[in-house]
Specification:
single chain, mainly alpha, two-stranded antiparallel sheet, two-stranded antiparallel ribbon, 8 helices, 41% helix, 9% strand
C-alpha cells in the first residue's frame, strides 16, 4: 500500500532519547558507577511529566475556586503521583505477562532492556494509574483535610489534559497504533517495528489511536466543564457588535464526585473503541482485550457512582474541607471576632437627653445606652 501524501510520519527514533547525561565522572568517587554509565532522558517520560505539571496547575486553580488553600494540591499529588505510576506499571505487567515473563527474559535488571521496572520503555496502563492514584489521593486528602470527592471533581478534567499530553509519548515511541487503514491521516510505522503485523507490506498505514484519544480527551474536557456548571447566554458587546456569550454559574451544580463519575463514563466509552482497534499484543478474555474490559468496568462504576452520589448528596458540599480542617485565608476576619470602635473599653458613648437612644449605633448586640451603664 503506497504512502499517501497526507499520512502522518512517525518521528525519528533518535527523538525517543533527546538527552543523555554521562555519569562516568562519578566512577572515581563511587566505584559502583561504571565509567560508561549514563542517564537517558526519554521523550516518553517528558510527555508524562508535562502532563502531570499541567494537570497540577489546573487542579490547583479549580480547588482555589472552590475555596481551598492555594497550593494544597501538592500535599495530595505527592502521594497520588508515585502510587499512580506504580499502579500503572503493575497493571501493564499483569495484563501483558508475555512481554516480560518468557525464557531468557530480563525481568529484574533495570540497566538492561525489558525489565519490569523500565517504565521509560513504555507500558503504563491508565486504569492501573487510576487505581494507584486513587489510593494515593485518598491518603493525601486525609493528611491535607480536603474532601476526597472535592479533589476528584477538581481532577476530572485535569486528568484528561494529562492523558492527552501523555499520549504524545506513544507517538514518539512508535507504539500502540491501530489497525491498517487507507485514510489520509494514517500513521507511518517502519516495518522493523516489533509490533508491525506479520504479513503486511512495508509502507502500510495504521490508525493513529494516540491522536484519536488525544482529540477525545480534549473534547471530554469541554464536556465535563460544561456539565459541571449551569450555563446561560448573556449578550455582550465586542467592537460594537452585540453577541451572545455562554456564562457559567459561579457555583458548580455537580459536586460530591459526580464530575469524576462523568469522567469515568466518558473515558471508558472512548477507550473501549480505541482499544478495540489496536494491534499490540494483549491478554484476551472471552474474545475481548483486557483493557476493553477495564473500559467497560469504568463505565459501569461511573454510572453507579453518579446515581449513588446524586441520591446521597442532592445538595452542595458545605466546604472543600472535612469538618474541623477548614482553612481561613490570612487576614480573614471571623464574624465572632468583629468589633467596632464603640466596643473599646476606654470609649464612653454619651446619649443626649433630647435624642433617643435608638438613634445611636449599637454594636456587638449592645445598645449605646447599655454601653455607658445607664439604666432605662
Amino acid at each position: 500500500m503506497p504512502l499517501l501524501p497526507l499520512s502522518i510520519p512517525s518521528p525519528p527514533v533518535d527523538w525517543q532519547i533527546p538527552l543523555t547525561i554521562p555519569l562516568g565522572w562519578l566512577h572515581a568517587l563511587i566505584p559502583a558507577i561504571a565509567e560508561t554509565q549514563a542517564i537517558q532522558i526519554h521523550t516518553y517520560a517528558l510527555c508524562i511529566l508535562v502532563g502531570i505539571v499541567a494537570a497540577t496547575i489546573m487542579v490547583n486553580q479549580r480547588l482555589k475556586r472552590r475555596g481551598a488553600e492555594p497550593g494544597i494540591v501538592l500535599d495530595v499529588i505527592i502521594w497520588a503521583v508515585p502510587l499512580g505510576l506504580v499502579g500503572a506499571r503493575l497493571y501493564h505487567v499483569v495484563t501483558h505477562p508475555g512481554d516480560f515473563f518468557y525464557e531468557g527474559a530480563n525481568i529484574w535488571n533495570p540497566t538492561q532492556p525489558g525489565a519490569i521496572w523500565n517504565i521509560w520503555e513504555g507500558g503504563n496502563a491508565i486504569f492501573g494509574a487510576l487505581i494507584g492514584g486513587a489510593i494515593g489521593a485518598w491518603i493525601g486528602c486525609r493528611f491535607a483535610g480536603i474532601r476526597f470527592w472535592t479533589f476528584a471533581d477538581a481532577l476530572a478534567p485535569a486528568i484528561l489534559l494529562a492523558q492527552a499530553l501523555g499520549r504524545f509519548g506513544n507517538y514518539f515511541n512508535h507504539e500502540l497504533f491501530g489497525q491498517p487503514t487507507d485514510l489520509p491521516w494514517g500513521l507511518e510505522i517502519e516495518a522493523s517495528n516489533p509490533a508491525f503485523p506479520v504479513g503486511l507490506a512495508e509502507g502500510t498505514l495504521f490508525h493513529p489511536t494516540f491522536l484519536y484519544e488525544m482529540i477525545w480527551n480534549v473534547v471530554g474536557i469541554v464536556f465535563l466543564l460544561t456539565m459541571e456548571r449551569q450555563y446561560r447566554l448573556v449578550t455582550k458587546t465586542f467592537l460594537g457588535l452585540t453577541v451572545p456569550v455562554p456564562v457559567g454559574d459561579a457555583v458548580a451544580r455537580l459536586q460530591w464526585g459526580r464530575v469524576w463519575a462523568l469522567y469515568m463514563i466518558w473515558y471508558g466509552i472512548g477507550r473501549a473503541w480505541f482499544e478495540s482497534i489496536r494491534v499490540d499484543p494483549s491478554e484476551v478474555f472471552f474474545g475481548i482485550r483486557t483493557n476493553v474490559w477495564g473500559a467497560f468496568a469504568a463505565i459501569l462504576l461511573g454510572i453507579i457512582l453518579f446515581a449513588v452520589q446524586s441520591r446521597r448528596h442532592p445538595g452542595l458540599e458545605p466546604s472543600p474541607y472535612v469538618p474541623g480542617r477548614e482553612w481561613k485565608p490570612e487576614g480573614a476576619v471571623d464574624s465572632t471576632e468583629t468589633y467596632s470602635d464603640a466596643d473599646e473599653p476606654d470609649d464612653d458613648v454619651t446619649v443626649s437627653a433630647d435624642k433617643p437612644a435608638t438613634d445611636k449605633l449599637a454594636t456587638s448586640g449592645q445598645s449605646a445606652l447599655h454601653k455607658t451603664g445607664t439604666s432605662s
